[in-house]
């Protein structure tokens, strides 16, 4: 064998592991048509959301002596983290999520309790609610949304046919989600509590839970929830303003009324992107809680 032939052989041997590694990477990130469609839809919704956020928040940001893109930049930072997490999570085996389901749930419960018991220097009360840790850098209830999805999905698969039994299938799940709902209500953040329950119900329904169990539990729980809502004056006022905005105090129903004005102003086709009027100080928090009203005003019913 000549010297050149020896070098070529060695190069070929060294190149094979590299080629195998590249092939493994390509195979690992190869996507089926359904996955490609999901990625495309996610990207489209993300882009639309960022555009709407900028339109709804630019005036508010400038009134606060920030750049018009202040809230957009903050959301872009969060979106970058979310996209990275999306990519990593998509490639993790389902067995790993099964192992992490309980730790995620315990972490959510522990941090939500921390929000309630820690001093204001660590868990400040913002807009009347203790839902953040370390300023506004950590919101445990947001982790809870992800935790509920992973945990309920894990138990749905694990229990299998037992889900069709009330005592051994559904009730244990309801008890744990009920703890999360109670912690969220104590912050108070009733919208998050309702979202936890909705996420649980959707996953359990997809898993084959009997509809009769939902109906029976709804009949039992609804009067109890109404009784508790009557004890929480702000919750009762929020419910009243939702069902009958005209009968609630102006301080409670103002945001809802302005949101209705925004949606009504949009009519069928909207007033145009960036042309909405409610973000000029008429609608509180047009870029967060009531951003849907901004969409209705600028994009209309069809939008």
Structural overview:
This protein has 303 residues and is mainly alpha-helical. The chain has a domain at 246-299. It contains eleven helices and no strands. The chain has helices spanning 3-28, 33-63, 70-90, 94-117, 140-159, 166-186, 190-207, 211-231, 233-243, 250-266, 291-299. Helix 4 (94-117) crosses helix 6 (166-186) and helix 5 (140-159) packs parallel to helix 7. It is globular.
Summarize the structure.
With 303 residues, the protein is mainly α. It is 72% helix and 0% strand. The radius of gyration is 25 Å and the shape is globular.
Give the helices and strands, then pairings:
Elements: H1 3-28, H2 33-63, H3 70-90, H4 94-117, H5 140-159, H6 166-186, H7 190-207, H8 211-231, H9 233-243, H10 250-266, H11 291-299
Helix pairs in contact: 2-3, 4-5, 4-6, 5-6, 5-7, 6-7, 10-11
Q: What is the alpha-carbon Rg in Å?
A: 25 Å
Low-confidence runs of at least 5 consecutive residues: none
SSE series: HHHHHHHHHHH
Give me the count of strands: 0
Morphology: globular
| Structural class assignment | mainly alpha
> Termini distance?
73 Å
List keywords for this structure.
single chain; 303 residues; mainly alpha; 11 helices; 72% helix; globular
């Amino acid at each position: 064998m000549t010297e050149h032939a020896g070098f070529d052989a060695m190069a070929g041997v060294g190149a094979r592991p590299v080629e195998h590694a590249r092939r493994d990477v390509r195979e690992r990130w190869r996507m089926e048509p359904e996955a490609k469609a999901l990625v495309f839809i996610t990207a489209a919704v993300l882009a639309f959301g960022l555009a709407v956020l900028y339109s709804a928040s630019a005036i508010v940001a400038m009134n606060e002596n920030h750049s018009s893109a202040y809230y957009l930049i903050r959301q872009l930072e969060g979106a970058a983290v979310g996209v990275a997490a999306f990519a990593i999570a998509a490639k993790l085996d389902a067995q790993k999520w099964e192992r992490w389901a309980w730790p995620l749930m315990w972490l959510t419960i522990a941090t939500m309790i921390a929000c309630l018991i820690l001093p204001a220097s660590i868990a400040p009360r913002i807009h009347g609610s203790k839902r953040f840790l370390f300023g506004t850098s950590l919101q445990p209830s947001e982790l809870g949304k992800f935790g509920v999805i992973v945990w309920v999905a894990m138990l749905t698969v694990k229990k299998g046919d037992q889900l069709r039994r009330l005592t051994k299938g559904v009730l244990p799940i309801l008890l744990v989600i009920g703890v999360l709902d109670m912690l969220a209500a104590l912050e108070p953040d009733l919208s998050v509590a309702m979202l936890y329950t909705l996420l649980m119900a959707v996953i359990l329904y997809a898993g084959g839970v009997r509809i009769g169990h939902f109906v029976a539990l709804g009949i039992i729980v609804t009067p109890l929830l109404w009784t508790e809502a009557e004890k929480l004056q702000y919750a009762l006022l929020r419910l009243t303003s939702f069902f009958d905005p005209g009968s609630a105090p102006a301080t409670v129903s103002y945001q809802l009324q302005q949101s209705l004005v925004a949606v009504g102003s949009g009519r069928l086709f909207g007033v145009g992107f960036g042309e909405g009027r409610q973000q000029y100080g008429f609608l509180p928090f047009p870029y967060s809680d009531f951003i849907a009203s901004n969409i209705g005003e600028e994009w209309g019913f069809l939008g």
